[in-house]
From TrEMBL, chain A:
It comes from Lutimaribacter pacificus. GO terms for biological process: peptide transport; transmembrane transport. It is found in: Cell inner membrane. This is Peptide/nickel transport system ATP-binding protein. Signal peptide: none annotated. GO terms for cellular component: plasma membrane. It is a peripheral membrane protein. Residues 6-254 form the ABC transporter domain. The keyword Cell membrane applies. Its main location: membrane. Belongs to the ABC transporter superfamily.
UniProtKB/TrEMBL annotation, chain B:
Pfam families: BPD_transp_1, BPD_transp_1_N. Belongs to the binding-protein-dependent transport system permease family. The lineage of its organism: Bacteria, Pseudomonadati, Pseudomonadota, Alphaproteobacteria, Rhodobacterales. It comes from the Bacteria. This is Peptide/nickel transport system permease protein. Keywords: Cell membrane, Membrane, Transmembrane, Transmembrane helix, Transport. Residues 95-300 form the ABC transmembrane type-1 domain. One of its GO terms (molecular function) is dipeptide transmembrane transporter activity. It comes from Lutimaribacter pacificus. It is found in: Cell membrane. It is a multi-pass membrane protein. One of its GO terms (cellular component) is plasma membrane. Its main location: membrane.
Automatic annotation (TrEMBL), chain C:
Belongs to the binding-protein-dependent transport system permease family. PANTHER family: ABC TRANSPORTER PERMEASE PROTEIN (PTHR43386:SF6), OLIGOPEPTIDE TRANSPORT SYSTEM PERMEASE PROTEIN APPC (PTHR43386). Keywords: Cell membrane, Membrane, Transmembrane, Transmembrane helix, Transport. GO terms for cellular component: plasma membrane. It is a multi-pass membrane protein. Coiled coil: none annotated. GO terms for biological process: transmembrane transport. Residues 105-290 form the ABC transmembrane type-1 domain. It is found in: Cell membrane. This is Peptide/nickel transport system permease protein. The chain crosses the membrane at residues 40-62, 105-129, 149-174, 226-251, 271-290.
Length: 330, 313, 305
């Protein structure tokens, strides 16, 4: 049994014009201690998925179907009080916007300490000590002073470190990180990723890293799940995915990544490829493959039949009628 | 910081000056000759001239204004032309019921309006939200004396739960004092509740969308903690601002409510003085209420630094 | 034996069905959508039309002359003859209440229009003229620091003796600062817009800018503001009359009718009760209209009020 098992997850929202199928039939597992990256363009349903794991989506207007099993228990049936005990204690979360994700009227120490006090019956003083310890762990200098400062007194990178401190304060078994580095400067991004990698080995949490940046994936994760239009289109180990991407969408994404050193190859000038067309409107019914309209390899059948996820090679899934299949895998 | 406080205090000076000039002009331009009124019916022209000279009424506007303003700053508001007593004394006698009424009103309004606004924002679009918003519109629409009569008729006259009219000084005991104030204060709090509930709801709606609310929930904080600790703390600046502005509504309402419930306060004195055309008293009351209003809002402005650590001057 | 043609799609594996978990939203006609989206606007408008009709048709609706005294028929409870009863002078309260709608609506509309026009002029002036801005805004601050009722009372005692005109004037002066501030803030923000600056650079006259850019941007918030001013003016008028600082007591305004019932309210609540209901419903109608307009015109305004 994996730590987290998501089965046929559907998250639909009612809008003024129709029903937006933000996530439509998503399944994946995360093993204890494993780092899984979820990749896709904005609007592909990856953030919504992460919010649904913590039960933070407002329903209505949303509706969730399927199963999200954490340690075998389906969280979608769990009571609100059970979810509150999980949040912050067993499942921690880091958000994209460090500038706005901290409450401006409480000190950093109060905000880290709150997590501890909620889940561990700690006194005010103990919570403060833990906060200082966490600030030191995430590499904030002079934590004894910083603990009493307000978020607006910290830089963006420091705030994201503080967010990580909040998320990890109770040693969660699973850390959900939703674009943790996107809003940061490039140099800070690398520091934060290093920090997360370092903490992962210390704390031993499994990590679900949500990102649109394949560079981050290569550096951090062991397994990758590629999402498009609310569906999983490909899943493989990082190594396999980068070496032999099987879904045309993944191939497109990889071509769009600027790579250091690629100019050493045959081409003297490297052009960044981009994927033509736009993400389909998820509030309109989709027929066939969601990527068909933008796919360079699309055939007539792609517009009719929604391709099933198939094992194309050992541990390598893809949802494409024309993805190459490794013969030996069968 | 202290420079800001000083600047903010200085900025009220033109406002206060304007109010003083306005209020003084009121007396200056008021119809009728105060000297003649004070002198009485039997007075001769010489008597009136003597009184006018004695009161300094024959001098120019600026001279009289400076003299009058000096008196006001020393707490001397002149003499009533109806009772011929010093206005300051008349006002001091009437302060307690009005201050009591306002304090109780404010307490009722805050205790009811803030949870109402929070609940409405939390359950946005629900039946509860609509009911609360309907109550707010009603609060703005039903005039305060109408609410007063309805409450007095049902709760006091028909059910006999509370005294219909009158005021018990606080010296007679807290309970009788409170009993005499519940109805008028509940009445007066209607508009105030509507005002505060609306701004609370609007501000909370905005704040509940903020990322830090999501962070608080992701930590496992309970719903009421998220609402009342994480969200409401951030909503306080606009709420406190509106509470300060609403003092004007409370003052206006007090004038009427004290009449309806026969409370011997400043509002009642205002109405009595209008009927008696007792301009010095009207003048003094307007001046005092305006000062109080300006000072309350000044204090509220200065309190922002305590409420929100981001605000530094 | 007829050979079954092989299914050409058989080689393509289809994904499992993705079930529908949410019913699509119901489709509504445009008119229905408008009504459902802004119900307060339509309810307010309908009520206001009713009250306005009552005011216009007062001579046809009222069974008696609102000023006719009937000393033999004083302080009577509601009956078939006098639906709302009679007051201390034997006047028919129903007739007086019907006529009272005229006073309230005239005062409400009068103040809303006058305060809008003067407030607009003052706001535009101080938005454009730096030197005037300081003085005008200090005066407005001063006026706003005097609670509206007290300001109106002060002005009414100055003008000695009420009349519809004096009441409108007194309340208008108390309401002008709100409009002036609103207009000034719109002017200041519009003036900073690149397209307006471009217009100035190209030699558009100040009047041209006011007409083409300031007015359209001010109109929507001002209309909403004007309805709220109308509602608050009607309440202020009633309060002024109620405490004896408003209309002369011969005018059948709702505030006056209630003022006359004041002494007797414990024994004869109907004298106060009926005009109170009409006043409340009318003010409610205007407020609902204002809320509806605000939501329809600019949902962002909802946060400011």
């Amino acid at each position: 049994m994996a730590l987290l098992e998501v089965r046929d997850l559907q998250i639909h929202f009612r809008t003024a014009t129709g029903v937006n199928r933000a996530v439509d039939g998503l399944s994946f597992d995360i093993e204890a201690g494993e780092a899984l990256a979820v990749v896709g363009e904005s609007g592909c349903g990856k953030s919504v998925t992460s919010m649904s794991i913590l039960g933070l989506l407002p329903t209505p207007p949303g509706k969730i179907a399927g199963q999200i099993r954490f340690r075998g228990q389906n969280l979608l049936n769990a009571s609100e009080s059970r979810m509150r005990k999980l949040r912050g204690a067993e499942i921690g979360m880091i958000f994209q916007e460090p500038m706005t994700s901290l409450n401006p009227v409480f000190t950093i120490g109060q905000q880290i300490g709150e997590s501890v006090r909620l889940h561990e019956k700690a006194s005010r003083a103990e919570a403060r000590d833990r906060a200082i310890e966490m600030l030191r762990l995430v590499g904030i200098p002079s934590p004894e002073r910083r603990v009493d400062e307000y978020p607006h007194q910290l830089s963006g990178g420091m705030r994201q470190r503080a967010m990580i401190a909040i998320a990890l304060a109770c040693n969660p078994a699973l850390l959900v990180a939703d674009e943790p580095t996107t809003a940061l400067d490039v140099t800070i991004q690398a520091q934060i990723l290093d920090l997360m990698q370092d903490l992962r080995s210390k704390v031993g949490s499994a990590v679900m890293l949500i990102t649109h940046d394949l560079g981050v994936v290569a550096e951090f994760a062991e397994r990758v799940l590629v999402m498009y239009a609310g569906r999983k289109v490909e899943e493989a180990t990082v190594r396999d995915l980068f070496r032999t991407p099987r879904h045309p969408y993944t191939q497109g994404l990889l071509k769009a990544v600027p790579r250091l050193g690629s100019s050493l190859g045959a081409e003297t000038s490297v052009r960044l490829a981009e994927i033509p067309g736009r993400v389909p409107d998820l509030s309109k019914p989709l027929r066939g493959c969601a990527f068909a309209d933008r796919c360079p390899r699309a055939q007539e059948v792609c517009h009719r039949i929604d391709p099933a996820l198939e094992t194309k090679a050992a541990g390598h899934l893809a949802a494409c009628h024309f993805a190459p299949r490794e013969v030996s895998a069968a | 910081m202290s420079a800001y406080i000083l600047r903010r205090i200085l900025s009220t000076i033109p406002v206060v000056l304007f109010v003083m000039i306005f209020v003084f002009s009121l007396l200056y331009l008021a119809p009728g000759d105060p000297a003649a009124i004070l002198a009485g019916d039997q007075a001769t022209q010489e008597d009136i001239e003597a009184i006018r000279n004695q009161l300094g009424l024959d001098r120019s506007f600026p001279v009289r204004f400076v003299e009058w303003a000096g008196g006001v700053l020393r707490g001397d508001f002149g003499t009533s032309i109806f009772t011929r007593e010093p206005v300051t004394g008349m006002i001091l006698q009437r302060v307690e019921p009005t201050v009591s009424l306002m304090v109780v009103t404010l307490a009722i309004a805050l205790v009811i309006a803030i949870p109402m606004g929070v609940a409405a924002a939390w359950k946005r679009g629900s039946l509860l939200d609509r009911a609360i918003m309907l109550f707010a519109v009603l609060g703005f629409s039903v005039p305060v004396f109408v609410v007063g009569y309805v409450l007095a008729w049902t709760l006091a006259l028909k059910l006999g739960w509370l005294p219909v009219q009158g005021y018990q000084p606080i010296a007679e005991g807290i309970l009788p004092w409170l009993r005499s104030l519940i109805l008028p204060a509940a009445t007066l709090s209607g508009v105030y509740i509507a005002l505060i509930a609306r701004i609370t709801r609007a501000t909370m709606l905005e704040i509940l969308q903020q990322d830090y609310i999501r962070t608080a929930r992701a930590k496992g904080a309970a719903g009421h903690t998220v609402l009342y600790v994480h969200a409401l703390r951030n909503a306080l600046v606009p709420i406190v601002t509106v509470v300060g502005l609403g003092v004007a509504l409370m003052i206006s309402g007090a004038v009427v409510i004290e009449t309806v419930f026969a409370l011997p306060g400043l509002g009642r004195l205002t109405v009595e003085s209008i009927l008696r055309r007792d301009y010095p008293v009207i003048q003094a009351i307007i001046l005092i209420f305006s000062f109080v209003y300006v000072i309350i809002n000044l204090l509220i402005d200065l309190s922002y630094t305590l409420i929100d650590p981001r605000i530094r001057y | 034996m007829t050979a079954q043609p092989p299914d050409p799609d058989a080689q393509f594996a289809a994904a499992p069905e993705r079930p529908q978990i949410l019913a699509p939203p119901p489709q509504r006609s445009r008119g229905m959508a408008m009504l459902i989206e802004h119900p307060t606007l339509w309810i307010g408008l309908a009520l206001l039309v009713l009250v306005t009709l009552m005011a216009i048709l007062a001579p046809l609706i009222a069974p008696h002359d609102p000023a006719a005294l009937n000393p033999a028929f004083r302080v009577k409870p509601p009956s078939a003859e006098a639906w709302f009863g009679t007051d201390m002078l034997g006047r028919d309260i129903f007739s007086r209440t019907v006529y009272g709608a005229r006073v309230s609506l005239i005062v409400g509309a009068g103040v809303a229009v006058c305060a809008s026009i003067f407030g607009l002029a003052i706001g535009v002036l101080s938005g454009f003229l730096r030197w005037a801005d300081n003085i005008v805004m200090r005066v407005m601050d001063g006026l706003m620091s005097i609670p509206a009722i007290l300001l109106a009372i002060a002005l009414m005692t100055l003008m000695r003796g009420g009349s519809v005109f004096n009441v409108i004037l007194a309340i208008t002066i108390a309401e002008i600062p709100r409009v002036a501030r609103l207009t000034r803030s719109v002017v200041l923000s519009v003036r900073e817009q690149p397209y307006v600056e471009a217009g100035t650079a190209c030699g558009t006259s100040t009047l041209g800018i006011i007409w083409r850019h300031i007015m359209p941007n001010t109109l929507a918030p001002l209309t909403v503001q004007a309805t709220y001013i109308c509602a608050s003016a009607m309440i202020t008028e009633a309060i002024l009359s109620f405490i004896g600082a408003g209309m002369p007591s011969s005018v059948p305004s709702w505030g006056n009718i209630m003022a006359e019932g004041r002494a007797l309210w414990q024994v004869k609540p109907s004298i106060v009760f009926f005009p109170a209901i009409f006043l409340s419903v009318t003010v409610l109608a205007v407020n609902l209209l204002g809320d509806g307009l605000r939501d329809a015109v600019d949902p962002r305004l909802a946060k400011q009020v």
